[in-house]
Design a protein that fits this description.
globular; seven-stranded mixed sheet; Rossmann fold; alpha/beta; 42% helix
Length: 231
């Protein structure tokens, strides 16, 4: 049986190296969101920084953010850390935590869940507690289209990152877009060309409804993240 030190020392070295590399690359400003890197999921450094800056940009006393699709909380930590910096606001995390999703993601969810010693929801809560951001989060458990029926708040930022199949993305967009305030933002993840295998998914919706629409401004892509402002 290997010694404990032989298992954990390489892990500690890797984490220390990453922290140093992150600090040298991004500076102290973004050191606060470093915890996101340790959570399983898909979010590049550029995307994490863009989301963090976007929340800081919201000029509202108590920002309201809705994240459709939270999984284990990789992007949730980034969004909540920004609220923590502002010391105000709420992040609604909408997820069924049942391993459902598009065909591409579902297999990954199942593989990752087998590595856990708890349910996905329990692991999500643990990750948020560990990062000291749970106080800024309210979990709305259920399918995004079900939760939308009873949702009441106006939204400063809507982050769509749930089922990426085109029909699901389109449904999320039309059910949730009217909750966004004028001057608020919408963001989509996995909106890059390389992932068009998801029946067009986010990119197809963006092309059809946002890119050429005067209802949206300040449109930009950051890696696979797309952001636009509601006019």
């Amino acid at each position: 049986m290997p010694k404990v030190s032989s298992i954990f020392i390489p892990i500690l070295k890797e984490r220390l190296y990453f922290k140093l590399r992150w600090f040298l690359k991004h500076g102290i400003r973004y050191f606060k969101i470093l915890d996101y890197w340790y959570i399983a999921g898909w979010l590049s450094e550029n995307e994490a920084i863009a989301l963090y800056d976007l929340v800081l940009k919201i000029n509202t006393k108590n920002p309201v953010i809705v994240e459709l699709g939270s999984w284990l909380g990789k992007s949730s930590i980034v969004l909540a850390k920004a609220l923590s910096y502002k010391k105000a606001g709420i992040l609604y995390c909408v997820d069924s935590f049942d391993l459902d999703g598009d065909n591409f993601s579902r297999d990954t969810y199942i593989k990752e869940q087998k590595k856990l010693n708890s349910s996905v929801k329990e692991q999500f809560i643990f990750n948020m507690k560990k990062s000291k951001v749970l106080k800024y989060i309210k979990i709305l458990e259920g399918k995004s289209y079900e939760v939308a029926k009873n949702f009441k708040d106006q939204i400063d930022l809507l982050f769509i990152d749930a089922n990426h199949n085109y029909d699901s993305v389109k449904l999320d967009f039309f059910l949730w877009k009217d909750f966004i305030k004028i001057g608020g933002f919408i963001a989509f993840h996995d909106a890059n060309v390389e992932k068009e295998h998801l029946n067009g998914g986010p990119l197809r919706l963006i092309k059809e409804e946002i890119l050429n629409s005067s209802s949206w401004s300040e449109k930009k892509f950051i890696d696979s993240l797309f952001i636009a402002k509601k006019c």
